[in-house]
Amino acid sequence: MITKLPRWVEYGSFILALIAGLVNSIGLLGFKHQSISHLSGIATLVGTGIINSELGDVFHLVVILLSFLLGAAISGFYIRGGALKLGRNYSSLLSLEAFFLLGSLYFLTKDFIYGHYLASMACGLQNALVTTFSGAVVRTTHVTGIFTDLGIMIGAKLRGETFDKRKGLLFVLIISGFILGATLGAYFFIHLKFNALYIPAAACLLLALTYSVYNAKFKNNKH
């Protein structure tokens, strides 16, 4: 049950969603109004672009999709299974996400489109860090599934079933974190342009450090 999981699950999910909201809003404002982690929208643009756009633009969108897939594949290679488990090497992957974001910043400030691909790769990696636990599907880089799951829970409650308050709180925190991150991303993009990506990159490194310290203390307490 989700009630048995430590409280850092909620905090970590909120921060990851906030990071994703930041990156996605910066991308939306800076990449010709194209999102980074909203692959449904990008896939739709690929489909419509085949009819209405230049072949080069369609190819660019396809590479964005493949970059997200590659990021998720990297995470899947290093973490066996999607279930959340303390002790797994999340810190290294979070640090790698920060590296991708910094690389994205480097290319974007030089007006190279490779930065868009690295940002998408970072989102794919993050989204695959934790996929499922205790029957809850957790996606931190987009909120469509979270709204769907929350709606199902509300409908089940109206039917008379028990409402899992902690799972509901987790979903609300992810949604709130994503929206707050998008707000901050828009604000910092106005003032810093693509240099605003330093903020989510730093947040990833801070989260990686915090998790490493927490994990080390947990191991010491077990001994």
Write structural notes for this entry.
This protein is mainly α and 223 residues long. It has 8 helices and 2 strands. It has helices at residues 8-30, 39-52, 55-78, 90-109, 114-129, 144-158, 165-192, 198-222; strands at residues 132-133, 136-137. Strands 1-2 form a two-stranded antiparallel sheet. Helix 1 packs antiparallel against helix 5. The longest helix is centred in the C-terminal third of the chain and has 28 residues, at 165-192.
| Quaternary organisation | single chain
Given as residue ranges, the uncertain stretches (5+ residues, pLDDT < 50) are none
Distance between the amino and carboxyl termini: 26 Å
Radius of gyration equals 18 Å
Number of helices: 8
Q: Helix and strand succession?
A: HHHHHEEHHH
Q: Trace the largest sheet across and list its strands.
A: 1-2
Q: What would you call the structural class?
A: mainly alpha
Q: Give the total of beta strands.
A: 2
- Mean pLDDT comes to 84
Taking the sheet with the most strands, its summary is:
2 strands, antiparallel
